[in-house]
Amino acid sequence: MGRKVTVAVSTLNQWALDFEGNMARILQSILEAKDMGASYRTGPELEVCGYSCEDHFREPDTFLHSWEVLLEVMMSPICENMLVDVGMPVMHRNVAYNCRVAFFNRQLLLIRPKMAMCDDGNYRESRWFTAWTKSLQTEEYVLPRMIAQHTGQQTVPFGDAVIATRDTCLGYEICEELWNVRSKHIDMSLAGVELIVNSSGSYMELRKAHITTDLVRNASFKAGGAYLFSNLRGCDGQRVYFNGCSAIALNGELLARGQQFALQDVEVTLATIDLEEIRAYRVSLRSRCTAAAGAADYPRIHCDFEMSTHSDIFKTSTPPLNWPNHTPEEEIALGPACWLWDYLRRSGQGGFFLPLSGGVDSSSSATIVHSMCRLIVQAVQLGDAQVLHDIRKILADTDYTPDNAAGLCNRLLVTCFMGSVNSSKETRRRAAQLANQLGSYHIEISIDLAVNALLGIFNAVTGLTPRFRMQGGCARQNLALQNIQSRIRMVLAYIFAQLMLWVRNRPGGLLVLGSANVDESLRGYLTKYDCSSADINPIGGISKMDLRRFLIYAKDKFNLPVLESIIEAPPTAELEPLQENGELQQTDEQDMGMSYAELSEYGRLRKQSFCGPYSMFCRLVATWKGDLSPKEVADKVKHFFRCYAINRHKMTVLTPSVHMESYSPDDNRFDHRPFLYRPNWSWQFKAIDDEVDKLQPIYTPSSAQLRPSSEDLLMSTQRSSHLDDSKHSSPLSSASASASIDVGISTAAVPLPGAAAPGGLSKKPSGYSKVHVNVLGKIKDRTGIPV
């Protein structure tokens, strides 16, 4: 008998409820695995119907069509003489389960239900499925008649069992079971299971790709044996991007791993494993052997099949490899780009329309589209027929073959600078230069005519004309004049998106891209139904500081030199009149009353560390003790939570974006909280005030110390991110800032002068300056009454 087995894990880009396409991709993966010499093939979680069916899992149709697809796959000659399992929902005794279904030569072997549901983050599995809780037990599942007619079987074992072939033994975990504190792979390994298989639907978050690989490797290290991990990849109809990374590990070492990001619909990852290496490794672990001698036995389903061959003496086992992980900048360049590609080709639209302001956010969205174009060109050059078919369909040009990213970008992306009398020449120039370097089809328009027309209607009805603050208007007038500009841009974006392909003699329309980052959404620093309202948003899950680092990376990687001036420019909405010398009157950080570095810190404490106002104050008063007094920290925390409470309602209409950041405020499914708050947080803020009263008398300012930078302060509490302070951080505003219930833009009066750094050693403004912290009682609702 042989001792070497060749196994395959599949990475599939499935689509919820696309049963025909999903079946084709499953069959393609089986064929590729078989052609490469594999005797066993596994795939991702719920690959038959797609992971993100959500409430469609309550429909009998979803179960029916999944069985129909299974029958087609099982009866296919492609699957002959090969052990195969697929993921699909199965209803057993009126309970829905998330299952692996294993078969060999047109005979079902086992239905193995998931034993631990995932309800963290974006997952809501317990809404649709129930965990199988009968450990080491099986029941007889009565097969649908259409299956029984073809297989001759009436029932199949359903439950917690393993499959024993002539030469080895194979058992299952499903996704969350690997993460679970009581992972089943330990019990299975002690019971003699040598190949442990995990089908997953794991999505990406920045800086998290290594976690899955570490878990897979560590599972095989601790328990011994081979661990086979298959994952989905792509956008299957939701806000997440499943990030591939299918892998095979043996005895603590990684043998093979699939790509994290790719346009490829099907990727098969193979490894040849020497079973005697598993046995030798396990025998050497004496404590494991003692535990195994008394371990409970699993029900074994016997399969009359040898996964190895008798003549495998010359077959080479797969050696270990060292797989480098992407940097966060590479993840931003690739993840949202792949998500955009899936959304575009499956939406039936002809490209994208992007209002391009020349700032960091819209420039990041445009650069990600350019990155997508580069991936398309690379895939076509590598011979990916599906990508070529899809791009020709999108462009309605059956003869087109993309050969450079800029040329493709010109066909797919329309950028538009929507200028006004408040726009500076610099932003207009930067937008035009970036469009030229990216290759986008670029236009420039003025919104002044539309703004004046709307103001004329208001004047005709009321006899009044609102004025900006610097022209003598009040805070409400100032905000209304900013909002009207923002919302006009949204309206214009949609009419141009619908008609620009008509202008260019092409059928179809364009998807409107948004460009609001995760920090501005958290703070509510956006106008409801402005250009943050779009069809999709590639950067909605990314922080401002990560976007800056991404543009630094893209400047050299994609040869976009204009990005340097975009990064250096102070962030500004340009909604208020310029100063007489043409300089900016308004910057984002002055308007918000906080820096982007602080916003990231607040976001992580609020979401990742589950801090309310009082807990956040307790954390930050220790972190910032060398820079701010307890009273100043309290003021900052209160200011953030007031702004957050006033603007939380905006999250109910947040444009769908690819999930990237673990402190995202997206309330669609990730961050479930009220959108109507008591904005003065009276009980919580009193708890802070009581603590300040205790701390203030004993607080000793460290005036002799050099004030640390934003990065220094943030790094003390960051676990995984590497934030650098913004070169152009604006001082915080102390003036009577107005934050409308409708608008996240606060108007700031003349800022107070900042204190110079001790000894003149550093003139860089700190994101945590002691000045401009007295903001309490100055946030107003839409009536102008302080909250």
TrEMBL record:
Biological pathway: Cofactor biosynthesis; NAD(+) biosynthesis; NAD(+) from deamido-NAD(+) (L-Gln route): step 1/1
Enzyme class, UniProt record, top EC level: ligase
UniProt-listed GO biological process terms: NAD+ biosynthetic process
GO molecular function, one term: ATP binding
A GO CC term assigned to this protein in UniProt: cytoplasm
All copies of domain CN hydrolase, residue ranges: 5-275
Region: Disordered, residue numbers: 701-734
Keywords: ATP-binding, Ligase, NAD, Nucleotide-binding
Transmembrane portions of the chain: none
Database matches in InterPro entries: C-N_Hydrolase (IPR003010), C-N_Hydrolase_sf (IPR036526), Gln-dep_NAD_synthase (IPR014445), NAD/GMP_synthase (IPR022310), NAD_synthase (IPR003694), Rossmann-like_a/b/a_fold (IPR014729)
Gene3D superfamilies: Carbon-nitrogen hydrolase, HUPs
Top-level taxon: Eukaryota
Signal peptide positions (record): none
Family of this protein: In the C-terminal section; belongs to the NAD synthetase family.
HAMAP family the record matches: NadE_glutamine_dep (MF_02090)
Name of the molecule in the record: Glutamine-dependent NAD(+) synthetase
Protein source organism: Drosophila gunungcola (fruit fly)
Upper taxonomic lineage: Eukaryota, Metazoa, Ecdysozoa, Arthropoda, Hexapoda
